[in-house]
Design brief:
Helix 8 packs parallel to helix 10. The strands form three sheets. Strands 10-8-6-5-4-3-2-11 form an eight-stranded parallel sheet, with helices on both faces. Strands 1-12 form a two-stranded antiparallel sheet. 36% of the residues lie in helices and 10% in strands. The protein has 400 residues and is of the alpha/beta class. The radius of gyration is 20 Å and the shape is globular.
Length: 400
């Protein structure tokens, strides 16, 4: 009997992943390997690849999710149809539904930027906004939105990112229930933009609030969303030194990393302090704020080990994949952490891909589940101090 482990993603339903003993085996080098490919955790930009190449990536499970920039609805639907034909596991299909259906398709409605919605000072308007985003996204196949923008516009005159993308300077405007229509929300950009005057598309930026100020503002926003069963969070390339040094007193200011690579913020705050149990993604890793913090070969591993479950976009997917394999081989990336990430992604897929496709998820991930069971139960049960029971149960509840 396999042990149980709680993961977000199923509402009131529970699915038990049954695993048989197996192992990954040898040979972590070179090309994509069938024994390890099901443990990748990338969301790719669809327009970066030719159609045949993209279909091959999806077929081999080298991409867990995909985002296409807005195009005519017919084109978006056809793109997804071609991928659905070859996908062994249903895809997370992402869009930036920040301002309405226009974030998914050029035929969609530009409902209004979040600041316009917030300015209406009407909860009913916020609800309508969410319904339009979800309905028009779903109409072209989208099941995951990189929104809402949960930043606070504290530096309206100088911050180049937030501005009208936020609900304003009042944090209460951001604290709305966002998941009622079947599309998973991915709140961004934790730990919060809107304080600095710089752009983390170009280099890392800073949320310079004190720890007390942060927990009372940005922290309160994310806690509220988590309490209302938020399914995923996107992490910015933003440093929050006060909170990081509070979580880890040994850190110096100079040692504080962007949140997308910070164990203190992702594991220490989101997982342990806030009890978040959904998927954590990086913001786009092609951004300067990500690439300048450390060498990419190290950054990819640092992100996953810090607590990121999915890497969003790539400068070169094949190189990033090789870094994952290299990290597994050298021990800089642990199999347990990567297995944990993939399990959370599967839970999210099972939540948003529809009941009829859940059996596909379970069946096609069978090889991966066998290896997890081998490592966490059968292969280790004889070790002193080992407690059997790290199988993969995907269950109700966003919070632990």
């Amino acid at each position: 009997m396999i042990g149980e482990r709680q993961y977000a993603g199923f509402g009131k339903e529970t699915v038990l992943f049954k695993c048989r003993a197996d192992s990954l085996g040898e040979g972590y080098a070179g090309t994509f390997d069938d024994r390890a490919e099901s443990r990748t955790a990338f969301c790719v930009m669809g327009g970066d690849y030719e159609k045949d190449e993209l279909k091959e990536l999806v077929k081999k499970k080298q991409s867990r999710g995909i985002l296409f920039r807005p195009a005519p609805a017919e084109e978006i639907c056809e793109n997804y149809r071609l991928l659905d034909e070859v996908a062994p596991v249903p895809l997370l299909k992402a869009a930036n539904l920040e301002e309405g259906g226009a974030g998914a398709t050029t035929d969609g409605t530009l409902f209004g930027w979040p600041m316009m919605v917030g300015a209406a000072n009407d909860d009913g308007m916020v609800e309508k906004f969410g319904k339009v985003c979800a309905a028009e996204g779903q109409s072209v196949g989208v099941n995951w939105t990189f929104s809402p923008v949960c930043d606070i516009d504290m530096n309206y005159s100088r911050n180049p990112i937030t501005n009208v993308r936020t609900y304003g300077s009042d944090k209460e405007k951001s604290k709305k229930e966002v998941q009622k229509c079947g599309v998973a929300a991915c709140a961004k950009h934790f730990p919060g933009d809107g304080v600095d005057y710089r752009d983390h598309h170009l280099h890392p930026t800073y949320n310079s609030l004190s720890a007390e100020e942060w927990y009372g503002s940005y922290g309160a926003v994310y806690q509220n969303l988590i309490e209302h069963d938020l399914l995923s969070i996107m992490v910015g390339h933003i440093v929050q030194p006060a909170v990081q040094m509070e979580i880890n007193p040994k850190l110096s200011f100079a040692d504080c990393l962007p949140a997308s690579q910070s164990r203190e913020l992702l594991t220490g705050v989101l997982r342990e302090k806030f009890g978040f149990n959904g998927v954590i993604t990086t913001d786009a890793t092609i951004m300067g704020g990500y690439c300048m913090a450390m060498e990419r070969r190290k950054a990819i591993l640092a992100s996953v080990m810090a607590g990121c479950d999915m890497i969003v976009f790539n400068t070169n997917l094949y190189e990033d994949y090789s870094y994952i394999l290299e990290g597994l081989k050298t021990g800089l990336l642990t199999e347990e952490r990567l297995d944990d990430a993939v399990t959370r992604i599967l839970a999210l897929k099972a939540k948003v891909c529809g009941a009829g496709k859940r059996q596909d998820i379970h069946r096609t991930e069978h090889r991966w589940k066998r290896s997890v069971h081998r490592k966490r139960t059968g292969a280790q049960c004889g070790r002193a101090g080992h407690e059997p029971g790290a199988g993969c149960r995907l269950a109700s509840g966003m919070r632990r």
